[in-house]
Design a protein that fits this description.
Helix 1 crosses helix 4 and helix 3 packs antiparallel against helix 4. Helices cover 44% and strands 11% of the residues. It has two domains: 102 residues, no CATH class; 45 residues, no CATH class. The chain contains six helices and four strands, in the order E-H-E-H-H-H-E-H-E-H. Strand 1, helix 1 and strand 2 form a beta-alpha-beta unit. It comes from gut metagenome.
Length: 161
Amino acid sequence: MRENDKVIYQAHEWMTGMGALYLQVAVPEIATIFTTHATSIGRSIAGNNKPLYDYLFAYNGDQMAGELNMQSKHSIEKQTAHYVDCFTTVSEITNCECKELLDKSADVVLMNGFDDDFVPKGLTFTGKRKRARALMLRMANALLGENLDDDTLIIGTSGRY
């Protein structure tokens, strides 16, 4: 790094928190930002069919991490939130979750969302949709060794991992 370089490390979610914490010690000239879209303990609470937002005020993040056997994830996330230069989240409700479960409110709330101007309009959209559907059906036919009808219901899903 040169003396006038301005470098920012942007970490998203607990998995990248160790990098931000390392930089705080090893290269403190690099600014660190940590963004969470939901807390790992909040996801785990909800994933275990416990009411998250109705009882958010009553949960202790450290205690719940022990109960749900996820102390390591929670610890990394909490320490990162507390020690980066700037802690951000994506909504007011997630900020409440951070305050209650990580004992730290976000420095900045960067609202989730996107500008839909990039979505094609009218006939352009219709044409792209038809071509994409035809491609998906060809791919499904090849993978399944079938000849699916043109009106076959296609359900798509995606995720983080």
